[in-house]
Structure formats: structure tokens, C-alpha cells
Amino acid sequence: MNQQTVPFLPFSRPEIDEETILGVSDVLRSGWITTGPQNQKFEAALSEFCGGRPVRTFNSGTATLEIGLRIAGVREGDEVITTPATWVSTSNVIYEVGATPVFVDIDPTTRNIDLNLLEKAITPRTKAIVPVFLAGLPVDMDRLYAVARARKLRVIEDAAQAFGSSWNGKRIGAIGDIVSFSFHPNKNVTAIEGGALVLNNEDEAVLAQKYRLQGVTRTGFDGMDCDVLGGKYNLTDVAARVGLGQLPHLERFTAQRRKLARAYFAGLGAGAAAKLGLGLPHADFENSNWHLFQITLPLANMTIDRAGFMAQLKERGIGSSLHYPAIHLFSLYRARGFTEGMFPHAERFGATTVSLPLFTLMNDDDVSRVCRAVNEICERYGN
Predict the structure, then answer these.
(1) Is residue 257 domain-shared with residue 225, that is, in the same domain?
(2) Which of 187, 259, 275, 314 is catalytic?
(3) 210 included as an active-site residue
(4) pTM surpassing 0.85?
(5) Residue at 4 is within a domain
């Protein structure tokens, strides 16, 4: 088939059904489009999904992380341990609350925070740990929480990519301490934009509500008070209705993503790419929701750089993305004393990773097309 006639395959595309689209129309016609009854239904559905734990929604997964830190009591002078292999918001919010991020390198197999290095990073100033479940793969929750309990540390799980993931048969969100989800358009479940914070008790839920809307509490028709410094982080009913329409499809979404991931392993496990040393993700089909399929390029064995590789994919009508450059090498972090060589596994991963298309509207033929392209590029530009 002529390459020009093949439709472009984007990196990601949300699947939104007609019932949800009609439901959004109903919300728009209702006259109540900001936080209201749809948001209440969405929170109730999320709470049920998370085993009855209190859940409060926000307008982004960044907001949920920041508020999670505040609820956990993280403040100026504290240290928070996290990973440099994540979206920069994970550590930016630590600075936002006045604390200092302490990075721990990643396990090169799971690409998550290396729990073998965790305890060495704990100091008397450590207040909390923010593990990131990269690409939807949880860390070893048993080991993580054993350390947290022993050292009396709070855990704010950055589960932005892990909605629908599990640990040993228990849903992420139904277990653990504070859990932060994202509903960005490229996530496994979207609300256009938005996030949710899973909390431990009603006191934390009430505090979350205060933080998301200027710290204000209302009572009766004319009672109003403000006792904490909050922001403007509430989720609209339009977004909540989209989220509600997504939840019934989650099991199918996860099954399809796992199916597509298996097809990627089959297509990239041999051929020119494999011979060059293409790196594949950890093959976990029990716990991960397969939010992303990330390869690492054997650039030392190629006559093309990563940007060139991604450009070659685009020429073949295939989108790709990057998740993520090592945070500590960004200018903001270099200015705070971080340098190259501090976290070599995260640096190597951040310099070579490419995220291939993975979304529920894809089929096996789409995966085969991507695998052929990857192998062709590796064969053409391999040393």
C-alpha cells in the first residue's frame, strides 16, 4: 500500500462513546456546567471503585499531587523522596509546597524508583515518599509500605498513569495511603482534564475540599469561612460527565491495552530492532494497565539519534512521544545543584526512551505496522 494513503496513526487517541457525548450535551443544556451533581456522581463512582475510600476530584493530576502533599503535612524544610524518571510536575509540586525533592535512581528493569536505594535516601528531614507508577506499572507495594511504616513516613502515590492497575489482585486506589490519579486525555480513562485524590478518612476529604476551592467552607445560606490557604482546583460537571462515561469501559480498555502490548512484544522481540539491542518494558500482565509502551533505542548501535528515529516514524505516518527526560537535568534543577551522573539509570532511560502508539482504538494490524516501521528503521540505520 502506498505510504501516502495510510491514515496517520497518532501516539494516543481517547475513546469516547456516543452516550457520553450525548450526556455532555445534557449537562451543557442543564445550565449547571461547573462543579455540581455530575461531579458528586463521579466522586461516588470513584469511591466505589476504590473500595469505599473517600475520593475528591480536581482539575488536574498536578493539583491532586500538590494537595496530597499538603494534606500529608509536607511543608517548608521537609524532604520528599521521589524518582527523576517522571513528568516534571511530580517534583515541581514538592517545591511548590516549600519542601525539597530528594531523587532516587530507577530500577532499570521496572523503570520505577529503586526500592533497594530507598532507605539510604531517608534523613531526619524526610516527611514523605512519592513513588511513580511509570506506564501504569506499580512499584512493589509490600516493600514500599514496609519502609514507610517502619520510618513513619507518609506516601503520596503518583498513580497518574495507573488507573485500573493493581497490586497482587488489589486495585491501586483501594489500598495504600494517599493516591493521586490523572484523567488527562492520553490516560486510560479521561475526563478531558482532571484528577482524583483518594484519601484515608473524612477529615482528609473535608480538607481536600477546602484546598480545592480557596479554603472556603460554606454553611447554610449565608455562612462562610476560610481557614486554610486554598486555590482554584475544582472539576467541572462537563469533565465529570466524561469521566462517568469512561468508567464502565475500564475493564475492556485494560484488556485491549494488554492485548496490544503482547502484540508489541511479539513484533519487536525478533528482527533488526532486537538484534541491535532494542529495550522493551517489563512484561507485567497482571498488575500493569499498560498505559504506555516504551522502548529504549540502542543509539550506540545506530547512525541516527532519537529525534531522527521519531522523525522516521512520522514519515511513515506513525506518531510517538517521549516519557520522560530525567528531571534533574532540566535547567531549573541544574540551577539547584543537580548534575549529570547523579542518577545514571534514569539518565540513560531518559535519553533513549520512545513511547510508541498505544490506545484502545488500535488493532493488531496497527501494532504490526508500527513494529515493521521500527524494524525497518533499525535495519536502515543500524551499525
Answers:
(1) no
(2) 187
(3) no
(4) yes
(5) no
